[in-house]
Every structure is written in structure tokens, then in C-alpha cells.
Amino acid sequence: MEEIQSQSDLYRSSSSCASSPTSRVPSSHFFYVRKPGSLRQPISFEDSPEWDEADVRTEYEAGGGGGGDSINDATATPISPSLSKINSGSMASPPPVPEGGAGNVVRKIAGASIAWRDLTVTMNGKRRYSDKVVKSSNGYAFPGTMTVIMGPAKSGKSTLLRALAGRLPPSAKMYGEVFVNGSKSHMPYGSYGYVERETELIGSLTVREFLYYSALLQLPGFLFQKRSVVEDAIQAMSLSDYANKLIGGHCYMKGLRSGERRRVSIARELVMRPHILFIDEPLYHLDSVSALLMMVTLKKLASMGCTLVFTIYQSSTEVFGLFDRICLLSNGNTLFFGETLACLQHFSNAGFPCPIMQSPSDHFLRAINTDFDRIIAMCKNWQDDNGDFSAVNMDTAVAIRTLEATYKSSEDAASVETMIFKLTEREGTQLKSKGKAGAATRVAVLTWRSLLVMSREWKYYWLRLILYMILTLCIGTLYSGLGHSLSSVATRVSAVFVFVSFASLLGIAGIPSLLKEIKIYGSEASNQHSGALVFLLGQFLGSIPFLFLMSISSSLVFYFMVGLRDDFSLLMYFVLNFFMCLLVNEGLMLFIACIWRDVYWSTLTLISLHVIMMLAAGHFRIRNALPKPIWTYPLAYISFHTYSIEGLLENEYLGEVFAVGEVRSISGYEAIRGNYQISPDTSSKWRNMLVLLAMAFGYRLIVYVLLRFGLNKNVSGRLLLCHRKNNSSR
Asked: Residue 474 has what pLDDT?
């Protein structure tokens, strides 16, 4: 830490480190130390990027193939420093082209500069657009650098990041200007990537499979091209050792650790080769070792030319030394923007020098986090051996105002404005939209991925199949040996009712899997990897084989154990009717899960609905005798149990004749009329089948409307609200 102080002493001759970049001495206290002779000129505030040099090409010694813009190409070239050289305040300009190379030309990742001026974000509070979350923020980020937005909880870090990426929720309103390569144009699809703080991953897939399916959803082109992109992303995020390992989740207890899972979520965005990558809390829930490995990996990615902008709450000294620039926020106010080591001098100039044995990031947050005031108030009578309890001998609010005033009057703020002016005075290369995969391709990919997930998720799918078989065996043994006499009609009606009702009720066990699919859709839709219609078609087609397997296995066991009519056509109708019943039930569960997106409330709602539909199905009381205001209209007519049971009973009894004594006989319709209301029309069972099919599509149509006009537009706001609740609970 003495060397950190010695570094900050270099800035005391000037109020800005940016004005004299050549006077900086390379730091040697960080975890990764420069090799001798590796001193290079860093990018300073006075450096103005030349737009005609955006695509830097170099020659390198190798016997490989021709150049490309892949991620791995950058790692093989001498454009970027090695991991032993990444410990500098800023990224350096590219080194000179080595002579005597093989003549192969490669291209780095084409980064893009981003600058923001007077950026203010307001959230819809008690008064219309009254709460300013971010206030008049200025800053910029260069290609090949890591710019970190740091601050305490609820300081506006994530809101500023979302504003830069154009992903603010509908309740937010943004003022100010954001420039990309000097232009105010919106960043098109594929030109940037955004990684949420908590990203849903598919635990039953391996890392390579997950990234490959993501590439198929995002990229057009041929399969071999997408495989190479996936391998590039795996190498870039140092995931080679985990490429064939299951990500892990609810069903697979052993999987990737939080650090590897976080890198997988970042690698998913790298398959598009974005110019700018925004990451919300890359060190979220990571230990010190995983955090250091994450930042070293991101530093390597930045050295390839990508522009990295991310938020962070706190970091160790080693991690702090890897940052290029820091934007320090507190209550939405910008307290500093500039190079990381210059921030130490800024605090010293304001009267808050960093203690020798304290991490810089800890010192910054200690000075600007108002939560410490409550701790000081609780411990105001406590004194340690050195005297004061706190290293900052001032109220936090006073410290924040002092730091803000010092920054606004410093040359650092003036240098930022000068650099923003240089970056915006001339428009550079416009970012172009990258092609998307076609809708048919996405549907096929999601269908195949759903089939693969279902085949591996034993807890949510195969266990349900086992439970269905156990239930069917129980019902079959309970109602076995009924015979075909007139006296068995009422018992058969009860058997069919119990089979349909209890099997539908047992389907609620699939709620967790549907909720996870909706969360995965929300994560993919927020980055435009999927759409509502594509998701529903893929989910529908992927669920058909599994539901049909459950329907045919359960129907065969029930049909022959109970002893229904021995006719193949009647058996096939029974299977199709029960399959439609499961399809409707799956659509109903998807509808409820889409509304609540919570296991407890979804399960409670579905159980209540199933109980009500069972009561209105016409078994406990014939449908004509039900009270008409509520139970008949609408409950009896919206209950899919009614149409399924009615169709199955019509299939069993229409055309059947029962003997009454030795002379007289009655039809099946007359025999069942006193136990259940059915139609005498022989085609009525097919109408019931069509009603079930219409209900199956109707529920999914409602889900499409909810996803298309509800969840799809508000997913960012809901995720942001969820993250704020998690932060407040912590």
C-alpha cells in the first residue's frame, strides 16, 4: 500500500493525472507485475482516437491460416499485452508491427467509443418523474479499456449502465446525450452485449451446448461458422476446462460454481462479437479468487479491442489495479471520473487520503456510503487503540458534498469535458446491425433444445411420468373388475372422472419447469435472442412428445385395467382425448405461471382452479341441476374437465346396449343419463375434442399477448425491481 501512496504522490504536482501521462511510473504492487521494459504510453484524456484507425491490423509470426475477426485471433497477435502486462492505469496504444512476420493479416475485435454528456435519469415515483436516479453524469469509454461504475447500493450504478445501453424500464425517463463513435444513433442489434446481474442458465446443458444453442438463436449463417464462434467465446472466457461439463441447477446438484456460471453468461453475449459489452455486477456473489479470475479474464477480453463498461460494488486491491477508468457515484451524483490512480489523488485533495493498510475501493465506499453513519451512531462511544472508530472524521453527507465540489472545480472534470468534445466533434464509423437467425430457425432450435432438456430433467419430466403411472395403477386397481353390466355404469363414470381430474391435478408438478422456461425466455428476449411467438411455438412443439408419452402410457394402463370397451378406434380416441386434456392443462399452467412467475402463488392458484373445475364438471351434481348464475355459466363451460369427461363417456357408452331383464334393453345414452349429462349425437365426442383443442390454443394465445405486450416490454423493469428488492433484503 506504500506504493499506492507513492503513486498518488506523483499526482500532487497537478490536480489531474490526465494532464501528464508521461510522468507516471508503472505500478508494481498489483498482483500482476509488468515485465522489465514493458513501459508504454497509456491513453490519457488528451488522446483523441483516430477514426480511420478503428480497425487495427497487424502481422504476426505464425504458420496459421488467413486472418479473421475471431476472438482467438486477437489472443495470438502481439496487439495486446499478456496477462503479466495488464497492470496499468489505462490500455496502451498498439505496439509497432513486428518485422519478419509470416504476412498473415488479422483484425482485432472492432471496439467502439462511447461517451455521455449531462446524462440524467428520473424514475416514476410519487410525483411524475420526480426522483432523479442519475444526475448530470459525464464520461466516456475507449476500445480496449475497462471502465467501471462504482458506488454504494442504490447509488444509480445499474441505472446509468442501462441508460448507456438503451435498456431503461418504461418507468424511467432519460435526459442528456449518449454518443457511440461520435454519433447519437441508437446501437443496432448485435453491436453491443448486455449481461444482467442474475442471468438464467439451463442447468441440464453443458457449457458448449448452451453457447451453441445461443449462437443458433442469435446468428445467421452456417453451422460450422457458429461452432467456431462458440469455441472462440469459450477460449475468451477461459472456459475450456468446463466446456463439456453440465452447468448444473435444480436437478443436477453438482455443476459449475458461481464464477464459472458468471463467465458462461458473459460468453453467451460474446458469440455476437459485440463492439461494446455492458455487464451489471460481474463480481456478483463471487469470492475473492473467482473475482480476480473474472477480472483478469475481462482484462484479456478488453485487450483484444472490446469496449467494456460494467458496474461494481466493491473490489479487492488486486482487482482495483486492473481497472482503467472509474466513475464514482453516490446518490446519483458523479464524485469522480477518470483513471483509477487519479481517484486516490482526488480523495487526497479533498481531504480524505487513503490509509496505508486499506484497499482503495474500501476507502472510497467508506467515505461516500451513508449507511456507515448509522454504524457510527451505534458505536459512537466505542474507541479502539488508535482513537477514532472511523478513518473518515466527517459526516458522510459532508464528505459527499466536499468530494463533488472538489471534482467539479478540478482539472479532471475539465479534461473529461474536453475529451467528450473531441469524441463528439466528428462522427466516426456507424455501427451496423448484424443479421438475425430466421424465425423458422429459432423455432426449430428452441424445439430441439426443449426436447434435449426434457430428456435430461428427470426431476421435472421423468419423475412426472413415474407419478402418472403410479396414479394410474392406483386408480386401475381400485376400479378393476367392474364388468359391463348396467349396474357398473355409475362406478365407471366415477373412474373416468377420478382419472381425468387427478391426472390434471398432478400436472401441477410441472410448474417449476415452466417458470424456469419463462425466466429463460425473459433473459433471451431482453437481448432480442428470442420472441414471444417463437418461444411459444418452440415450447409447444417440444412438449408434444413428452405429453403424448404420458397420455398413451397412462391411458393404456387405465383402459385395460378398468376394462373399457375392447375396440381399437375407441382406445385411440381415449388416448387422443386424454392427450388434449394434458395439452390444455399445460397451457393453463403456462398462463398462470406467466401471470405470477412464482412457484407458491402459481401452485396455489392452480390447485384452487382445479378444485373449482372438478366441482363444476358435472359428476357431483349433474350439469343441468347446477345453479345457473355461477356454476353453469361460466364455470361448467370453461372447465376442460367437463369436455374431456363428457367426450370419454360418449366414446364409451354411445352405441352400447344394455339388457334389462330378458326382453327389454336400453341404449348406453339412457343408461348413463341419470349419472352424467352427455349428448345423444354420435359426433358430439369430436366436438368436445375440438373444444379441447381450441382451449389449448386459446390459453397459449393469451400467454402470447401477455409476453408480447406485457412481459416482453417490462422484463427489464421487473428484473431491475427484483434486483432492488434483493439488495434491500441484503
From this structure: 96
